[in-house]
Design goal:
single chain; Adenylosuccinate Synthetase, Chain A, domain 3; about 30% helix; Adenylosuccinate Synthetase, Chain A, domain 1; Adenylosuccinate Synthetase, subunit A, domain 2; alpha/beta; 12 helices; binds inosinic acid
């Protein structure tokens, strides 16, 4: 396996955790490079469920190096809680298999408070964030007022920078949001203690990763959230605060762009979104309800019910194109069993205009209508099947049509939460050991 980026090709929650876990078997290093504990990567191993928020999914495989890069917004409380929870379940974690970038920015209590108070302040204009302090932490990073992991380990610097930060944040919390101020000494005590507990994992992760890459080690870059939530290229302002795809790797991990040899998108056979923001193919009635209940579509991090709808081909093609995907994996195909008709959104319309390609020149996505393509559904459960040929004809037709229309090969289907509930697709060699393009991109199939 060459170095691979796995990214979400929708609005997050595409089932990346399970795929990354599978691919981690062949990788030597697994890297989180953006986002933070807003992510929830669910992995089911032998019927046991693990939800990973910050720790890279390679941790469930002994002998892998798991790295958290500089681009991650790191909540030390969340990370230590996760490490403890995993250790209690027998996962061995130490400085040799978990590395934390000294230059990753730290999420403090004040970031979480400001995230939540800011959402209340915005009222109907809220983003629907996870409330984990992600946006305020990245905002401080860009303002050059944040503290990094290394700062937690330097008492003098930590006091100096936290005092300056809290002076401003407390003014915001008390005077704008009417909240209690946070106490400097308490925050210092709390975060220095957390820093000491993290110390053994902390290092120059960028340099370590570049060394591993030069030595030819197989690296898996684990994207969080999804392309449509990308800060620059997603449905702004209803996005997260980082670059969620292959575009975030170089800066977020501290490796050269050419360290990414292959790019693999993950997308569900339908679509979901949590939080506010446009979702053209959303189904608000019984169809959406049925997808939610069959797919158990509730957030892994916040437990919020996810908004559900049919596959949005315009958005998917954009996400695959934006990230230069060599292939993609269609997840949750099993959830579509039991529908009379399955639909795909193939174009957006507004007035006399029609778009089959996503464009920043389109009107706001709230204003577009979706043009649908309909397919006969299939009734039988498929989660026990392991070969493409065994799927009902209607399911095969659906997958093959979507693959052609996406213009990128579907290299695998996922048909249930367990590690082994997958159907590899013959002829698509994304997991081959030789780097290079998997198949010719072939962009004119439909
Ligand atoms: P934030 O990342 O908490 O600031 O939230 C910004 C937007 O991204 C909100 O709509 C969240 O629901 C969404 N979001 C953040 N993380 C995830 C995720 O892991 N899956 C799905 N949506 C997410």
């Amino acid at each position: 396996m060459p170095s691979v980026c796995v990214f979400g090709a929708q609005w997050g929650d595409e089932g990346k955790g399970k795929i990354i876990d599978r691919m981690a078997r062949d990788a030597e290093v697994v890297v989180r490079y953006q986002g933070g504990a807003n992510a929830g990567h669910t992995v089911v191993v032998g019927g046991e469920k693990y939800v990973l928020h910050l720790v890279p999914s390679g941790i469930l495989h002994p002998g892998k190096i798991n790295a958290i890069g500089a681009g991650v917004a790191l909540d030390p409380l969340a990370l230590l809680g996760e490490i403890e929870g995993l250790e209690q379940r027998g996962v061995v974690i130490g400085a040799s298999n978990l590395r934390v970038a000294a230059n990753a920015h730290v999420i403090f209590e004040h970031h979480k408070r400001i995230d939540q108070a800011g959402e209340r302040w915005r009222g109907v204009g809220r983003i629907g964030t996870t409330g984990r302090g992600i946006g305020p932490c990245y905002a401080d990073k860009a303002s050059r007022t944040g503290l990094r992991v290394a700062d937690l380990l330097d008492p003098v610097r930590c006091r100096e920078r936290l005092r300056a930060a809290l002076a401003e944040k407390n003014a915001l919390l008390t005077q704008v949001h009417g909240e209690q101020a946070l106490d400097l000494e308490q925050s210092l005590e709390r975060y220095s203690t957390l820093g000491k507990r993290l110390q053994s994992y902390v290092g120059d992760v960028g340099a370590e990763l570049r060394g591993l890459w030069r030595a030819g080690r197989k690296i898996l870059f684990e994207g969080a959230q999804g392309a449509m939530l990308d800060l620059d290229h997603g449905t702004y302002p209803f996005v997260t605060s980082s670059n969620t795809g292959a575009n975030g790797i170089s800066s977020g991990a501290g490796v050269p762009p050419r360290a990414i040899e292959r790019v693999l998108g993950i997308a569900k056979a339908y679509c979901t979104r949590v939080g506010e923001g446009p979702f053209p193919s959303e189904e608000l009635g019984p169809i959406g309800e049925k997808i939610r209940s069959q797919g158990n579509e509730y957030g892994a991090t916040t437990g919020r019910p996810r908004r559900c709808g049919w596959l949005d081909l315009v958005a998917l093609r954009y996400a695959l194109d934006l990230n230069g995907a060599d292939g993609w994996i269609m997840t949750n195909l099993d959830v579509l069993s039991g529908f009379d008709t399955v639909k795909v959104g193939v174009a957006y319309r507004a007035g006399n205009s029609r778009w089959t390609e996503f464009s920043s020149e389109m009107p706001s996505l709230e204003q577009v209508q979706v043009e649908w393509q309909e397919f006969p559904g299939w009734r039988e459960p498929i989660d026990h099947l392991r070969r493409f040929e065994d799927l009902p004809q209607a399911a095969r037709d659906y997958v093959e049509w979507v693959e052609r229309a996406s213009e990128v090969p579907i290299v695998m289907l996922s048909i249930g939460p367990d590690r082994d509930q997958v159907i590899p697709r013959a002829g698509h060699g994304l997991f081959a050991s030789q780097p290079g393009p998997v198949v010719a991109p072939g962009r004119a199939l439909v």
